[in-house]
Fold:
Amino acid sequence: MESQIKHIHQQLVTKQITCTALVQEKLALLKENTHHSVNSLLDEMALTLAKKVDAKIANGEEIGLLEGIPFGIKDVYMVQGTYTTASSNILKNYKSAYTATAIQKLLDAGAIPLVKENCDSFGHGSSSENTIFGAVKNAIDTNLVAGGSSGGSAVNVAKDYTVFSIGGDTGGSIRQPAGYNNIYGLKPTYGRISRFGLMAYASSTDCVGPLAKSIEDIRIVLNVMSGKDTKDQTTIASTEIDEEAISNNTVKTVGYFKNFIDNKAIDPKIKADFLATIEKIKAKGIAIKALDFFDSETLVSTYYTLAMAETASNLSRLDGTNYGSRIEGENLKDTYSITRSENFSEESKRRIVGGNQVLSQGFSDEIYLKGLNLRDQISANFEKDFEEVDIILSPVTPNTPPKIGDSLKDPLAMYLSDAYTVGFSLGQLPTLTVPQGTATGLQITAAKNNEQTILQFANFLKDTI
Amino acid sequence: MSKIMTVDILSSIKGAQPSETVNKLFDVIKNAPLTNNNSLNNVNYNCLSINDLRDDIVIESSDLEKQIIIENFPKQKKGYLVVSQVIED
Structure:
């Protein structure tokens, strides 16, 4: 698909449409909330901004490429004066006091925020069912889950309710719902986009990223949001990727993990489609290399162990004292524990308790430190792989989306469904989901800060398979 | 310091119990092979240079930011923000 951003920009500057009419149309679609993708609408703000864009155009002033482009925001980002609930009960009335850096950059470029989008509470989930706003329905088949945790964002893009949306990816939360709803979703290199103003889940893998319907729109939004930020000192310097640089493929060697494909858990159709894609790439003269990697159980266990430890620490501040819905008990400790028991979901409590187990005396050496050691081994493995291959190609998920309700019954199965995404999170590597190759898409991964190669190869795949 | 704290106390969640599902994940970690290398975080360097530290200055919040912070506070009485009764043990 061509760039929606450029198409709309052209319609605005040639006065084929007004920004106000465009925003009104999208808001009307979102208001129906047919897929439970909406937590709150930013209608007043959006319409005020749209009028300003229209006035500029009417005055003959030039507008920027993102000016007047409507977008969605996963409900874990601060936008001053708007509700930021993390789809949780404890923060259902919480109002952002400030704006996240990534979102501010989009606002400064003139993009128009329409909606705070439904997701798994605090990012805790892979199906967008762990939410107080109702399970998000898949854009293609409403009986199926949307994926998660950025499920509302993926559905809004897939249904054209937003032109692009900003999700958050800790262990696959952008890539997996993008795959489940047949759109593009990028988890950039850790640190490329500032996390300031994103509610922390697991700080060492949390990434901000765009979901969109075209590679070009991913490129445009990535460029705007990237850059160092003194408010997030883990941010890294990066260079802008221009359109020309991603038009011709330079990838010569593609790797894939043998054990992902030989795994008993993979759907036979996804396996066959993936191998057929590999053959098509080979036929274009690109070398293919089968690589060894860690087994799914080790990847999932390492990721969840470290993520739980980090989320237990990050969410310890939510106790109803400074903010959060407080339920009074007999004393301070009692107030904390009643507030947290009543207001956190079962899945969030499972992760907080697991995290505190990991971090407690006696457990930390045996589990937490060993988990960190495994993470080092996984990252070292990637470094070695990228000496031999330019990119790694993998399926996004071993199976197609489950029916709504099934994931909640079997949390272990839900954790294992993240087997193909979590490794790249632990390695802090950039990875893009493309809606091609298998029923839930393909992941393209490159070495750190190599988003340009990923987008280049995505363009090549678009024309090849 | 020898006091043993259970996960419900550590997590401030009434009646919290370790989960069987999560314990299965921990078992995988316990049984995974370790490298001989004892030093940690050799690959993902997220530390920053001292030259990149931000200036140590106080930044005044805007009036709107202050007003929203007060609005978010769970309980107010006669213009004061009310915290729960503190106990010492």
About this structure: Strands of chain B lie at 76-77, 80-81. The longest strand of chain B covers residues 76-77. Chain B has a mean pLDDT of 80. The two ends of chain B are 14 Å apart (CA to CA).
